[in-house]
Write a structure and sequence with these properties.
There is one protein chain. With 153 residues, the chain is an alpha/beta fold. The chain folds into two domains: 65 residues, no CATH class; 62 residues, no CATH class. The chain is built from eight helices and four strands; from the N terminus they run αβααβααβααβα. The strands form two sheets. It has a two-stranded parallel sheet. It is globular and about 50 Å long. InterPro entries: P-loop_NTPase.
């Protein structure tokens, strides 16, 4: 499991939330057991579903997004390391290329959150918004700043 997934999973466990993780390795292991993780994600009420960035390109993910029950309960889509959508280019993270279309496919009541600790104001922030399909003039788009710098005394 990637470092980001481990961090999210650890945080979710601290709050006793019920979650499922879906990435290529876990999907393959489930497939080998004749288990459908996408079906579980669509039918069970999870508190959180952790998906790797290549999932929007996979057929099962489209089934999940088309599930009426899943769409009704989906409240937030969170993209960790959102700066990867632009900063290191398509060669590093081609899976991040499709994330811009993801927001447009979500129900209207779903909030998109992009997380990054290294984004600066200006061109980088605008490029990330563009890559994620967020319009600058959208009244529901906010930028919150919390520095990851620590002062050593």
């Amino acid at each position: 499991m990637a470092k980001g997934f481990v961090t999210f999973a650890r945080a979710i466990r601290q709050f006793n939330l019920d979650y499922i993780t879906i990435n290529l390795g876990i999907l393959q292991a489930a497939h080998d057991r004749s288990e459908s993780l996408y079906k579980s994600a669509a039918t069970k009420k999870w508190d959180a579903i952790l998906l790797s960035p290549e999932q929007p390109k996979i057929k099962g993910f489209h089934m999940l997004l088309n599930s009426r029950a899943f769409r009704k309960d989906l409240r937030t889509t969170c993209i960790g390391e959102a700066h990867l959508s632009v900063q290191w280019g398509a060669d590093f993270g081609p899976a991040y290329d499709s994330l811009g279309t993801l927001h447009g496919r979500m129900p209207d009541h779903t909030m998109l959150v992009g997380l990054t600790t290294i984004c600066s104001m200006g061109a980088t922030e605008i490029a990330i918004r563009d890559a994620l399909g967020l319009r600058k003039d959208d009244p529901d788009v906010y930028s919150l700043r919390q520095s990851n710098k620590r002062l050593d005394i």
